[in-house]
Please model this.
Amino acid sequence: MKTDDLIDALSDRLEPTAPNAAWRRLTLWVTASVVVSAVIMLSWLGPRPDFMLATRTVMFWVKFFYTLALGGLALWAAERLGRPGLAARRPMMGWIVVVGAAALIAGIELALAPAPMRRHMLMGHSAMLCPWRILALAIPLLIGALAALRTLAPTRPVLTGLAGGVAAGGLAAFVYAFSCNESAMPFVALCYTLPMLAAGLIGAVAGRFALRW
Model:
């Protein structure tokens, strides 16, 4: 069989893929992983005792939208990086803008607060625990994200793994926020963002091997 005939024969068997198939696949894997992470959180830590009262405070919703926005933007970046020829500049810039805004607000709050209160606003009472808990809750999410990204065709496995890891960290922070009773923005900007970046580094290392094809 000639080369052209072989190509024609192979192309005849191709079936069109829905434009949003990659996004649906990634969302399905990550949604299942969020459920697993939430079950672990509830059985391990449980929801905060004052949960219903906390929902009436502004800071509860700030943490809610901050973590969800960062997880969602990183997931968008991972989905873009998982397909050849697509740029992820917009979601990555959006992630940086959201983190920068949180850091700015946290800095203003620290500058306006009395000096004796600043350490507590930054460290709270769980700074030594919070990042590790978020990182632990990110493990099932990272596994799910990498499993989903393996079904795509990432040409930059390290960068794709980084985005997947940051997404896992952001969504794990979102899950953890339902248990955490810390409410200072400096604490959130530091102790919620650092484990997202740590999960991103783990994802980058894992992606170097898991996402090669």
